[in-house]
Design a protein that fits this description.
Helix content: 10-25%
Number of strands: 16
Radius of gyration: 25 Å
Distance between the termini: 29 Å
Structural class: alpha+beta
Number of helices: 8
Strand content: 25-35%
């Protein structure tokens, strides 16, 4: 028997999970109090660079990290904060170093963030991710991510790889994701995704008249050698297949259904841009803002998979968020 769920995003996580997350976040705040180390410059370091002297005070940290602390004002000489790692120090001067944790070390902390949980049991949960939420901490986004929210949502997430996240959506892509809550479930979901047994369907709005009405793009995707923040179709990339169906069109735009047979980074965005039809507002791949959208026109609308423990067939559909819904109606003339 298959359960089919049509869902609209909820506003908050369960109250008990939010309260637990707030308590854990409070505990973490105490753990963030930096250790302060103090030492006096000896004759051996007279005339040396400040960062070299600081390395002798905290030798277990990398020089790059300690240079960063200096640049951020966490190191003082005779009571005055310094921001130049190359500043020379003199014998007898007093150096104080606040060993502030790195952003990376603070990243994997619970945060009581609102997430839309559309299905949950002891083994698995399905969330409807909002556009603008990063899935996993990375440079520039060390907090406020779905991973942080999951760590607050249930305690078991802390013992799981990536808090149970088994696939990702780009920051500005909205829609459905499945997350494992136990190691057994995570392992089974990863295997199911690798075996192409998880059905992931998207709605997209591309620029131009996409033709033919139905086709597949089967091109390898890898890191763009000219711009490392982008992906591209490259011969050395990983195999990637996207099925595309044009559902409607209006002058200058096409409303599409896209189905993934693989899950490469930026896959739909790259494949459509390669054909000369970047997604609306996908500036990274040549799309232009239009139809009131300020983020790429991509929404993960349907997710179907076998329950990783019971084997029961599950399917979910997500309502369009307001910005995407308005743009979709502008192209199709209907919801």
């Amino acid at each position: 028997m298959k359960n089919d769920y049509r869902v609209a995003p909820s506003a908050q996580p369960p109250a008990e999970a939010q309260a637990a997350g707030e308590a854990e976040a409070s505990d973490a705040a105490w753990a963030d109090e930096p250790e302060r180390r103090t030492d006096t410059v000896t004759a051996a370091f007279h005339g040396e660079r400040l960062d070299k002297a600081v390395v002798s005070i905290a030798p277990e940290f990398s020089r790059n990290h300690l240079q960063g602390l200096i640049e951020e004002g966490h190191v003082s000489v005779d009571g005055t904060a310094q921001r130049s790692a190359s500043r020379k120090v003199l014998a007898g001067q007093r150096i104080e170093v606040d060993l502030v944790p790195t952003a990376e070390s603070r990243a994997f902390r619970p945060e009581a963030l609102p997430i839309a949980v559309v299905f949950e049991d002891a083994d698995v949960m399905v969330v409807d991710k909002a556009a603008g939420m990063v899935v996993h901490p990375a440079a520039g986004n060390w907090s406020g991510t779905l991973l942080n929210a999951l760590l607050a949502h249930h305690r078991g997430a802390a013992a799981l790889p990536r808090a149970g996240i088994v696939h990702r959506l780009d920051k500005d892509t909205s829609g459905l994701m499945v997350v494992g809550k136990t190691l057994v479930a995570v392992t089974a979901l990863v295997r199911a995704i690798a075996a192409r047994e998880v059905h992931r369907e998207y709605r997209a709005i591309a620029q131009g008249a996409v033709t033919p009405a139905k086709f597949s793009i089967d091109l390898p995707i890898g890191r763009d050698p000219q711009a490392r923040i982008r992906m591209a179709v490259v011969g050395s990339g990983k195999l990637a297949r996207t099925d595309v169906e044009r559902l409607a069109e209006s002058p200058g735009f096409s409303a599409l259904r896209c189905t993934l047979h693989s899950g490469r980074t930026h896959q739909i965005r790259v494949h459509l841009a390669q054909r000369g039809h970047p997604l609306v507002a996908d500036v990274l791949y040549g799309g232009k803002p239009a139809l009131g959208l300020a983020r790429q026109a991509l929404h993960a609308t349907r997710l179907a998979f076998a329950h990783p423990v019971t084997g029961q067939a599950l399917a979910f559909e997500s309502a369009f968020p307001a910005d995407f819904d308005a743009a979709w109606q502008a192209v199709t003339g209907k919801p």
